[in-house]
Amino acid sequence: MPYLDKPPLLYAFAALAFALGGEGEGTARAVPALAGLLAVGATAWLGARLLGGRGGFVAGAALLTSAGFFAFSRYVRPETLFVASLAGGFALALTGLAEQRRGRVVAGLALFGIAALAKDPLGALAPPLAIGLALALAGRARPIGRWLPWPGLLALVVLAFGWWLLAEIRTPGFVWYTVVDNHVLNAVGARRFPDEDVPLSADEFLAVGLMGAAPWIIPAVLTVWSLARRRAWREPQEMPWVVLALWAAGVFVAAALSSFRLPHYGLPAYFAIALLAARGWEEQRGRGFLVFHAALFAAFALACGLAWGSDGARFMDSVLGATDVAARKSAAAGQAAPLPAFAAFRPLLGAAALVFAAGALALGLCVVAFNRVSPRARRLVPLFAVAAVMLAMLPSVSAALSLVASHRSVSALGRELGRRAESGDVVVHEGPIENSGALEWYSGRRPVIVDGRRSVLAFGALRLEARDVFRDATWLRETWLSGRRVWVVSVRAAERSVVASLPGARLVGAAAGRSLWVNEPR
Fold first, then answer.
1. Where are the beta strands (DSSP E) in 362-505?
2. Is pLDDT at 194 greater than 80 in this prediction?
C-alpha cells in the first residue's frame, strides 16, 4: 500500500545502503548519521567563508554538540537529510550572491529542491523567501534573476515537485493530501486524516527547541539582537547574516504560531543558530558574556543534580514527556509510557551534573582571570571550555537514547514471532503499525493491521490495494474463531485490547509496552 506522508529520498538512500552494506540496524542508521555529518560540514564551510577558519570550526562544533541535533542524527528519520540539504543550499546560495557566482546560486536552489525531496515542500519554498525578504529589506531585490536564476529555479521545481506528478498519477488525491490535509488543515488542527501524534503547546515547543540548541542559543540571540539594533539589513555585507537571522527566527515563530508542533520542528533552524553563535563568540568582548554562560551551566548542574536525587517523577513527566513523541502518544491513549524506569537514567543525570558543574567552574575561573590574560585567551579558552562541556555531554545523550530504544524495541517480540509462526498462521498488529515499525523486519511476517487507521498510513488505507491490510475488530473475531492460528501483537493495554473479548486468548509474552497473544491451547 502507498505511504505518502513523507517524500522518498530517505527510503531510497536506505535501500541503497542495504544494497551496498547489507540489511542491518547500523546500515539503516548510517544514512541519517552521514547526513548529520554533511550538515556539520556545510555549516563549518559557510562559517569559514563568513568568519574565517576559526569561525567555521566554531560553527561546525556548535551544530555537532547541539543535543537536539545530535539526538536526531541517530534516528532513522529524514530530519538530518533535511537539515543537510538546507545548510548546503544556504551555504552555496549566500556565498554565490556575495561573490557574484551564479553557478553557486543555482546549486543552492537545487539543494533546496532536494530538501523538499527529503522531507517537506516548505524546504524548497521557505529558503528563497528568506533570501528574497533580506534583499528586499536592503532594497536590493531586483533584478530577481540575480537570486532566483531560472536554471536554479527550474532545478528546484523539478527536484522538489517533479515526483508529485508520478505520485498523483499512481495515487490520485496525493497532492490534496500533501498540500491541504498535511499542511493547511494540519496547521489549524482540522486534518481529515490525523495520526496519533500529540502536539506540544507553544511554550513546550519553544522550551524543547531552544534547550536542544543550548548553550549556543545565547550568542546566537545576542547576534540577532545586534543585527536588529544596528538595522544591519541596510548594509550589503551583512546580507548573509540577515538571511540566517530571518531563517532561524522564522522557523521558531512559524512553528509556535501553528496549532501542531512536534519536538523536532525546530531542527531546521539549528545550523543557522550555530553560525550566529559562532559570530557571537567572535564579537563577544565583555566579562558578562562569560558570567551568563557560567550561570547557565551552574543552573543545568543544579537541575540535573536535583533530578538525580529525586524520585524521578517530575523528570519523566516534564522532560521525557515533552521530548519523546511515543511517550506523549501513550499518555494520550491512557497507557503507560514505553520508557525505562527512572533508575536507568539516574547515573546519566549524575554524570551530566558533574560535567555541567565542571563547566561552570571552568568558566568561573575564566571570569576571575579575565583581565589577567591576553585578548586572544579571553576569547578562546572560554569557547573551548563550552565546546568541551557539550562534547562531554554527548555520550550521556547517546546512552539515554539507547536506553529508550532498547526498552521500546519490538525486536524481541518480532524474533519470537518469526521463530514460532508458521506459514499458514495469521499475524495481526493491533494499533497503528508505526508504533511497531520494525515488526515485519524482525519477524519476517507482514501483519494485518486492526484498529490502526489513525496513522500516517490513513490516506493510503483508503486505496483498494490496502483492503486486505487494514481490518476491523469484526474481521479479527471471525478469523480468530475460524480455526486458523492467529498471532496478535498489541500496543494496547490488556483491558483496552480487542483480544480481551476473544475466547481462548493466551498471552505468549510481553515486552516494550506490547503483548503477544495467540489463540492456540497452552
1. 426-430, 448-450, 470-471, 486-490
2. yes
Cβ distance 292 to 232 under 8 Å? no
Mean pLDDT of the 184-207 span: 88
Strand order through the sheet with 426-430: 470-471, 448-450, 426-430, 486-490, 514-518, 506-511
CA distance 499 to 488: 8
Q: What is the pLDDT of residues 413-427, one digit of tens each?
A: 999 999 999 988 999
What does the block give as the cell for 37?
Answer: 555529518
Question: For residue 332, is pLDDT > 90?
Answer: no
Indicate left, alpha or beta for 471 from its phi (over 0: left) and psi (-120 to 50: alpha).
beta
- Count other Cβ atoms within 10 Å, centred on residue 366: 22
Query: What does pTM read for this prediction?
Result: 0.93
Amino acid sitting at position 186: N
Confidence of residue 18 (pLDDT cuts 50, 70, 90): very high
Residues 27-74: tens digit of each pLDDT: 999 999 999 999 999 999 999 999 999 999 999 999 999 999 999 999
Helix (H, G, I), strand (E, B) or coil at 509: strand
> 334 pLDDT band (50/70/90 cuts)?
low
- Domain spans, the chain: 286-402, 411-518
C-alpha grid cell for residue 10? 530517505
Relative to beta strand 486-490, strand 514-518 is antiparallel
According to DSSP, the residues that pair with 430 across neighbouring strands are: 450, 490
Strands of 157-281 (E only): list them. none
Burial class (CB in 10 A: 0-12, 13-18, 19+), 507: exposed
Task: Note whether 490 and 450 are within 8 A (CB).
Answer: no
> Alpha-carbon distance 437 to 325, whole Å?
14
pLDDT for residue 352: 96
30: left (phi over 0), alpha (psi -120 to 50) or beta: alpha
| 309-314 CB contacts, 8 Å cutoff, 24+ apart | 311/342, 312/342, 312/343, 312/345, 312/346, 313/342
CA-based nearest residue to 177, from 461, 465, 468, 435: 461
Q: What is the mean pLDDT of residues 449-459?
A: 89
Position 335 scores a pLDDT of 64
Specify burial of residue 29 (Cβ count, 10 A radius: 0-12, 13-18, 19+). Answer: middle
Bridge partners, 429 (sequence order): 449, 489
Phi then psi dihedrals of residue 448, to 5 deg: -85, 140
Angle at 114 (CA atoms; ends 67, 273), nearest 5 degrees: 30
Span between the terminal Cα atoms of the chain, in Å: 35
Alpha helices in 258-324 (DSSP H): 270-283, 287-308, 313-314, 321-323
Cell 548546503, located at residue: 88
Q: How far apart are CA 481 and CA 463, in angstroms?
A: 28
Looking at residue 129, its pLDDT comes to 96
